[in-house]
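Quality-control log, excerpt.
Job 1 of 2 completed; input and output follow.
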Amino acid sequence: MKTVRSLSLAALALAPALAAHAEVPRVVADLPAVAALVQQVMGDLGQPETLIAAGSDAHHYQLRPSQARSLQQADLLIWIGPEMTPWLDRAGSGLAANATALALLDLPGTHRQDFGASAAHDHEHEHEHEHEHEAESGHDHDESHAEEGHDHSGLDPHAWLAPGNGRVWLGAIAEALSARDPENAKTYAANAAKARDELAALDAELKSNLAPLAGKPFVVFHDAYGYFTGHYGLTPAIPVSLGDASTPSAARLAEIRDRIAAEGAVCAFPEANHDAGLIATVIEGTGLRQGAALDPEGSLLPPGADHYAATLRSMAKSLTECLGQG
């Protein structure tokens, strides 16, 4: 079966054959943050369609029939990659034969990293606690694995949370659009250059604002923040759930409470589109402050060209408001 990744590796090779009948491409993006980068490059020439609806979870999403039709009609698909949305890799068989795709995680210059050492530590020790807590949780080892869903090691797909990647991707998006629409190549290039400069300025601002938070451990809903904490020099977050935001087992919750005490966590942050009550349960009796919900996908923010910057700003604001107290 044809997959989106198999197309992405040869995405620009089709350009010479397509340029003869070039027009502004019909673009589909997976995440709102990706669509924002595309919109910045397209400017007034066009508007991408975003597959992940506002308030939805990208890890566990099902395309509507209308969205499947949009994929069939798209000239260009721009997405993070199957590590983030495996369901979209399967849906890629519906792309038109002359469509191209750009998997951003595959692009040269993209900073890629595996799920952090803290995640590996959690996963290893969860197995120890599973055996200790089987009787009280009512779940055996196999059931716990069924709950988790799959292996959480390997490449962390939340790479848009490193703004340096956003800058790399803006240039690649401009090249992909220009390959389909050479008449507007100068506009795409100019828009991308402007957006890269704006993102560099935002990055410098956030680095200054977040610097005082270094060395303050905190708890998050799931393991999505390694790029952000690494880039801004923050202590790696303690995730309650793992990389795909699956529901944690009772054994994992016990492990997290142990880590909160051992590492001296300061704050805990719920996450948009996930049960805030779970965070409240985990930190009950610990004395941790509960901060505003983090929204790594920007799923609750207005769509548009400003969405990517707004996502990063929102993350920094929520962290600063809680971790910056005392």
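Job 2 of 2 completed; input and output follow.
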Amino acid sequence: MKLNTVIYKYLFKEMLAPFFINVIFFAFVFLLTRILDITNMIVNYKIAVSDVLLIILYSMPHFLIFVIPISVMMTTLLTFLRLSGDNEIIALKAGGVSLYELLPPVFMFCLVGCLLTAGMTVYGSPRGTTALKELTVEVAASNVNIGLKERTFNDYFKDVMIYVNKINAKDKSLTDVFIEDQRNKNLVITIVSPRGELFNEPDKPVFHLRLFNGTVSQVDLENRSVNSIHFETYEVSLDLAGTLSTTKVRKKNRKEMNLDELRQYIKEDTKKDAQYYVILLEWHKRFSIPFACFALGLLAVPLGVRSKSVRRSFGLGLGLAFFLFYYLLLSAGMVFGEAGVYPPLVGMWVPNIVTGGMGLYFLVRTANDRPIWINFFPNLIITRLKSLVTR
């Protein structure tokens, strides 16, 4: 067996275990952003644990789109940090193995990450987003106040818009309620009430909103007349059956579209309006993020080798900083791409080009044993601290 083959297998195996650990860790970090919502659903709304687990499952593809690339980067960084710290890089160089010859297993590993991320962007995320919306509607059919949000104009029900200033999840009481009912085409009903209660009929997708001491204004569009009355108790019926059927036949948004639907929209759109750029941006995003695995993985190699001279924690922090830099470039590309400031192609692929270019530059200098600037800042900080201590 050739020496290079042995080294390739060794490096690839070294990256497998850290990769799975990184995926689990960063997926957990992303889930922490929703832990308050999940806890709220279980404690206050008594949602079944099985439904909560399904919500997490359907949300995971969206998280994994970013979790996999950062896991690829941090795994590569950790592997080369260890190799450099144990002087294995020096031993390989002494044996005639250059840094460039260590790249094939890294690129193979990045290819695996790229394919996994592409599976999430092309298949997992669109299907997960669709399934999550359908599940949310079904869960709301059994507990409608989940769908109502405080200080938000809720258009959850067909032709009915509801605004609630405060919601008490325990007793389902509502404070400062505003409703606009347009279910009758020729009659617009506006209801304002300081207090209300929400309750449902058993085994039926019908909810009732009971309001107290409020005002009803009826605008007759056909006769151009307005009637206003004060009430002590007023009840509004909300039927979820129409909402459920509407959800199944509604028009998909960009995150739910598959590649064929995105391609068809781009091909048939002739207006080139804001929505066109949003869809085109989504098309390029589906492919650019998977290829970020190559750019971030390439950048991680010189960072891992050169971070030997500083503390390992600094090397890990540096890796996270570069990923944040990539994410900021991607976010800026999405904002300016949607606004039409520059083509979506530029906005989605420039982050990969910039990050990959930096990685290539650092790699060449590291392979030629030339210093790169990453050591400058920690050395400067250490020098400053020493000077302060000696004073």
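Post-run check on job 2. The chain has eleven helices and six strands.
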